[in-house]
Amino acid sequence: MKLLSSSDPSQVSQACAEYGITSAQFDTLYTRSRAAKDRAYCPYSRFRVGSCILTDNAQFIDGVNVENASYPVGTCAERVAIGAAVSQGHKKFKAVAVATDISPPASPCGMCRQFIREFCHLETPILMFDKDGSFVIMKLGQLLPASFGPEALPSAASLPATG
Ligand SMILES: O=c1ccn([C@H]2C[C@H](O)[C@@H](CO)O2)c(=O)[nH]1
Ligand SMILES: [Zn+2]
Fold first, then answer.
1. CA 46 to CA 62: how far, in whole Å?
2. Is the pLDDT at 161 greater than 60, yes or no?
3. Tens of pLDDT along 30-83?
4. Which residues bind substrate (predicted)?
5. pLDDT tens-digit readout, 119-132
6. Is residue 70 a known part of a binding site?
7. Which residue in 68, 90, 64 sits closest to 78, CA to CA?
């Protein structure tokens, strides 16, 4: 796990080539996840999280963490972004970005990793941006090894996500 600089074009282009996204897509994921972070609703933790996901037809959809006075009811930015995307008709994603105000960057929690697993290949890049715009990039399969997914269920063939 290596911390890379998003302001170093050679580090960005090398990472993009390795993980199958364009530099333009990287820039949008970075800009949008950071901007989304400012819209987080997190009066309890004060821990702002923004997410942006890239759909397989090149749409970008944002999410923020949305907390609740009943603490366990709150949801993470990544799941909000994916829920928004699914509600807009997207079910396959090429990249997931998450931005926070800490360094090194936060990585998706276990529940989000499983949620992402439903809609992404194990090779899908997860981009994690820190407070300075430095980033770590890892494949979903690295974040969630030996995972359980929809293909394990006999009923999966009839699920919209896999159909
Ligand atoms: O990757 C993460 C980690 C945490 N959170 C949220 C959940 C909660 O609102 C706050 C503190 O855990 O940050 C996210 O949205 N995504
Ligand atoms: Zn989470």
1. 19
2. no
3. 999 999 999 999 999 999 999 999 999 999 999 999 999 999 999 999 999 999
4. 65-71
5. 999 999 999 999 99
6. yes
7. 64
Q: How many residues does the chain have?
A: 163
pLDDT band per the 50, 70, 90 thresholds, residue 162 = very low
Percent of the chain with pLDDT over 90: 93
Residue 60, amino acid: F
How many Cα atoms sit within 13 Å of 112 on the Cβ side? 24
What is the 101 CA–ligand 2 centroid distance (Å)? 16
Pocket probe for ligand 1: among 38, 42, 47, the residue whose CB has the most ligand atoms within 8 Å is 47
ipTM of the complex: 0.99
Q: Which domains, ranges and CATH numbers included, belong to the chain? A: 4-144 (3.40.140.10)
- What percentage of the chain has pLDDT greater than the value 70? 96
From the CB of 101, is ligand 1 less than 6 Å away?
no
Q: Taking the model in full, what pTM does it have?
A: 0.95
Q: Give me ligand 2 centre to Cα 10, in Å.
A: 31
76 lines ligand 1 (CB under 6 A): yes
Instruction: Report the atom number in ligand 1 closest to the C-alpha of 67.
Output: 9
CA-proximal residue: ligand 1, atom 10 (nearest)? 47
Which residues belong to the active site? Answer: 78
